[in-house]
Amino acid sequence: MLHMKLREEVWAMNQQLPKNNLVVWTGGNVSGIDRESGQVVIKPSGVLFDQLTPENLIVVKVEDGEVVEGDLKPSVETPTHLFIYKHRPDVGGIAHTHSPYATSFAALGRPIPAALTPMVHLLGSNVPCTAYVHPGHEETGRAVVEVCEKGYAALAKQHGVFTMGATPTEAVKVAVTVEEAAKTIHLALQLGSIEEIPPEEIERSFAYYKTEYGQHHDK
């Protein structure tokens, strides 16, 4: 079976979506790409998360979505994932959710402001929102790439959240962080107005997090 290590990571990260209250029922998905082969591992369409296994995930070609391995239909969001992979060579994993607090901003067509340090540490920016596009098509991927530029999260207007990372694990980490920030900012807005962190402090914090957070074994 192709890409077993990647299959196991993509399966594990799909399991994290319901565990972190980012999805309900069968909505949402995580994928990962093997850049050497140009093949993507993605959740099958309409399958409950507790019925997923590493083996029943689907492998498709990044260039055209042709199924390489798997008996089920791939996620309807596959064209969106593939467009992002083709236009963001730094991305190795993508998560798509309808997490309620972040998607409430998408419902309004508003970005999630860069008002909390945990979010700017990880993203270095706000979370922008696209114009409305047809869900599940490559137009969604194009809209995400356009508003994200070099960033790692975007809201698809009136639809949901797309997050990216160097790996599927990083993409899900971003999704969890974005939802937490959206919830906290939503609560703060009930109390009054909020201020975004100044751009120079966002830049400093983003750089600091990349070099200082976590264990660095080369030090």
Descriptive report:
By secondary structure, the chain is an alpha+beta fold. The chain has one domain: Class II aldolase/adducin N-terminal domain (L-fuculose-1-phosphate Aldolase, 3-Layer(aba) Sandwich), CATH 3.40.225. The chain has seven helices and seven strands, in the order αββββαβαααββαα. It has a seven-stranded antiparallel sheet with strand order 4-3-2-1-5-7-6, with helices on both faces. α3 packs across α6. The radius of gyration is 17 Å and the shape is globular. It starts with a helix and ends in a 7-residue tail after the last helix. The model has no long low-confidence stretch (mean pLDDT 97).
* Name of the level-1 CATH class: Alpha Beta
What is the number of helical segments per DSSP (H or I, 4+ residues)? 7
What is the oligomeric state here? Answer: single chain
**In CATH terms, what is the fold-level topology?**
L-fuculose-1-phosphate Aldolase
CATH architecture: 3-Layer(aba) Sandwich
